[in-house]
Structure formats: structure tokens, C-alpha cells
Amino acid sequence: MSTTPNLATRDQQVIWHPYTQMKTAALAIPIVKGEGALLYAEDGKTYVDAVASWWVNLHGHAHPYIAQKVAEQLQTLEHVIFAGFTHPAAVTFAERLIQILPQGQSRIFYSDNGSTAVEVALKMAIQYWQNTGIPKRKIIAFRDSYHGDTFGAMAVSARSAFTAPFWSYLFEVCFIDVPVAGNEEETLKQLEAYALAGDVAAFIYEPLVLGTAGMVMYTPEVLERLLEVCQQHDILTIADEVMTGFGRTGHIFASDYLQRKPDMVALSKGLTGGTMALGATSCNEKVYEAFLSDDKRKTLFHGHSYTANPVACAAGLASLDLLLQEETQQHIERIGQRHAVFAQQFRKLPKVLEVRQRGTILAVEFEADGTSYFNKMGDTLYSFALEQGVILRPLGNIIYIIPPYCITDEQLDQVYQTIRGMQQLITGDRY
Ligand code: PLP
């Protein structure tokens, strides 16, 4: 009999996991291999990765093409300081991103993840106004948004239980309601009131889908009107496309549904197809030019050791190659169509409050069981899905699918079937 502890036990002895109450958490499930939309556990069990490993994976796990490009880059140049030096992968990736980003985006500033992409955008916006000699201080954001876990990103995110220990350290933000159906005019009024009061540097928003809020969706039409108000009052706009980018909503960017384009865009997650940690903030020439000066104090003094890591940029380039292939675009369409059919059938069932869908993102909101975010329902549904061989990490009483684009019809059916099982569990029709 072996006396070596298994991986889960070794993990428990040395690892502190994110978003996990370590005192009560179950042992982490050791995953030893990934292929397509499947993850293989050490004990031989397989899981359909219906949440694309925290919304990052686009083309399936351990994709051979990305692996090859990453290996080639590793053998050529693994990293180089990015102040005063550059390299082919960073430049080519920036050129290609600019080709597909919303019109007007002309500069790429690299960082390491979604939170830092947001930090950079906020710093650009605040310093933009200082550099132009009209310092404006206020930032507007949606009340329920999530932009990351670093301090600036937390400040512009919902004042949720997650950030409660830090509230007194966060800068003040002008929060407006999310313009969900029926609430559009009220949100517009709130934005206009802040805009008229003046001193607003920027409006940051998750375009069309607020992810962590529970895949809360609103229309391009109302966002268009919000951006129009910003334009009228000379307020910079920051589209946080960290989750919505790279095909998630059906178009390459959620901003593509709109005529008006943002001044800045924050990118991460799908930026490398879920392979390497990378963030990027793009901006237009208007923002960029405000930092060009003989006065060195107008420099954007921001950077990370791994800024523009060549291996991450190579992964990004490979992922972009795959994303733009006809076949991937067809998969995105296929998933959207199948989601729509499921949504149509499922929204009529008891205990189902709402089914929301845009492109490859589908969310089912069950009637809440009266408890908070830290509720039991989420835990129960999560465990139930795992038993069915599906990773569906709920947001409280909301279940969502945001799969790798290569997910097969059979795997999607398994996910839908699991969600049907959840509904039966909640209504008591099961067991
Ligand atoms: N912005 C949005 C819209 C997100 O959904 C997230 C993460 O979920 C972030 C920013 C933060 O990204 P990261 O977790 O890579 O720091």
C-alpha cells in the first residue's frame, strides 16, 4: 500500500485557493489532462468544462496548434524587458488586435490579466485629464459590475460582500443602475445627472453582459444612448471586454453591436484562448496623444515585470488564428442557436425565474431560496453538476454556460441535461 499522499491531500497542505473558504472547502479535484472541452481527473473521471475554466478557454484544452506556437516561441525568446526593447510577437499581436478591435483603437498596452487591464484603463483615463490640463476626478460604473480584484478594479466594482473588508480603502465611484429591461430610462437619468454635475473622467462598463453579477444582460440600444451622453459631456468610455471579448457574445467584441465606439478597451481571458496569463488595454489616438510630451511627468508610469511576455503573445496570436477560422465562427453560431432553443423550452418551467442568452453565453436564474450569495443552493447545484460530470460553477442561484467553442453537441446536451436535473432537484421532482 502506498504511503504517498494523493495530490488532493498534498494540495490541501500547501495551497490557498482563490474564492475558497479553506476551512470548509472540499478537497480540490486534481485535473491531470485536458482535451477539447473535457478535463480529466486523476481518479479517471471526466468533466465537461462548461464554464471554460473561468471563462478563458476558447478552443479547447491543450490545443495542439497553440501548444506548437508556444513551444516555438519558448525556444526562440521566452521574455525580454519591455521598456526600451520590443519583440516580433508583441508587435504582430498588437497589429492584429488593432485590425479586429472596435474602430479607432490604435494602441495596445500589455499587462498580465483582466484586473490589470482595467487598472491601466483607469490610470489612462485619470491621467489623460491631468495631462490635458482639465483634471476630472469622478468615475462612473454600473452598480453591480465586476472589473477585477486589484484595488482600482475593486473600487469600480459592486460593493459586494467579497470586497467588504476593503470598502473603506476604495475610492468613491458614481454608481448607476444596470439598465435591465424596464430600467433603461432611470439609468439614463442617473448617468445624465452625474454628467451634468461635471468632473467625470470616465465611464467604465461591461458591454451588454455583466458576468459576475450573474450574466445580467442589457441591450445595445440603451448602451448606445449611454455612450451618447458620455460623448456629449466629454466623458471617456472604457469597455471592459475581458469576458465578452473574442466571440463570446456572437460578434468578436460586444462593442461590435454598437455604432458608438469606446475610447479604451480592457482585454484578457480569451486574449490567449485561455492558455497564458495576459492582459491588454487598447486606446484611441485621442487618449494616446495626451501622453506625448516633452514633459516626462506626462508619461504613463505603469508596467509589470512580465509585460508583453513573448510566449503569452505567441499564444494570443495562435488563438486569434483559430478564432478567425470559418470553422470557429460556425461553432460560435451553432452554440448560440442551440442555446436559444434550450432557453425557449426551459424558461417556461417552474422555479425558473429567467433564462438569458447572448451568443455563446447562457444563464438560467432559478428562484432564490431566500439566502444570500453564500447560499446553499449554489453549493448544492455545483455538487450536483460535478456528479453529472459537468463543471457548472453557479453565481448563487444563477447557473450559466460559457463553453469552449469546440464543445460538441453531445457535450452541450449533457450540460443542458444537467441543468434540467437541477430544476428537478429544486422543484423536488427528483429524488
Ligand atoms: N473584468 C471582467 C468583466 C471580468 O469578468 C473579470 C474576471 O472575471 C475581470 C475584469 C478580472 O479579470 P482577472 O480575473 O483576469 O483579473
TrEMBL record:
| Annotated TM spans | none
Look up the EC number in the record and give it: 2.6.1.62
According to its UniProt entry, the protein's GO biological process terms are: biotin biosynthetic process
Keywords, comma-separated and alphabetical: Aminotransferase, Biotin biosynthesis, Cytoplasm, Pyridoxal phosphate, S-adenosyl-L-methionine, Transferase
Site positions per UniProt: Participates in the substrate recognition with KAPA and in a stacking interaction with the adenine ring of SAM? 19
For this protein, the record's InterPro entries field holds: Aminotrans_3, BioA, PyrdxlP-dep_Trfase, PyrdxlP-dep_Trfase_major, PyrdxlP-dep_Trfase_small
Gene Ontology cellular component terms for the protein in this record: cytoplasm
* Binding residues annotated for pyridoxal 5'-phosphate, in chain numbering: 114-115, 240, 304-305
Please list the cofactors this protein needs.
Answer: pyridoxal 5'-phosphate
Q: Which residues carry this modification: N6-(pyridoxal phosphate)lysine?
A: 269
Q: In which pathway does it act?
A: Cofactor biosynthesis; biotin biosynthesis; 7,8-diaminononanoate from 8-amino-7-oxononanoate (SAM route): step 1/1
- Return the broad EC class: transferase
GO molecular function annotations of the record: 2 iron, 2 sulfur cluster binding; adenosylmethionine-8-amino-7-oxononanoate transaminase activity; dethiobiotin synthase activity; pyridoxal phosphate binding
Q: How does it assemble?
A: Homodimer.
Its function, per the record, reads: Catalyzes the transfer of the alpha-amino group from S-adenosyl-L-methionine (SAM) to 7-keto-8-aminopelargonic acid (KAPA) to form 7,8-diaminopelargonic acid (DAPA). It is the only aminotransferase known to utilize SAM as an amino donor.
Entry protein name: Adenosylmethionine-8-amino-7-oxononanoate aminotransferase
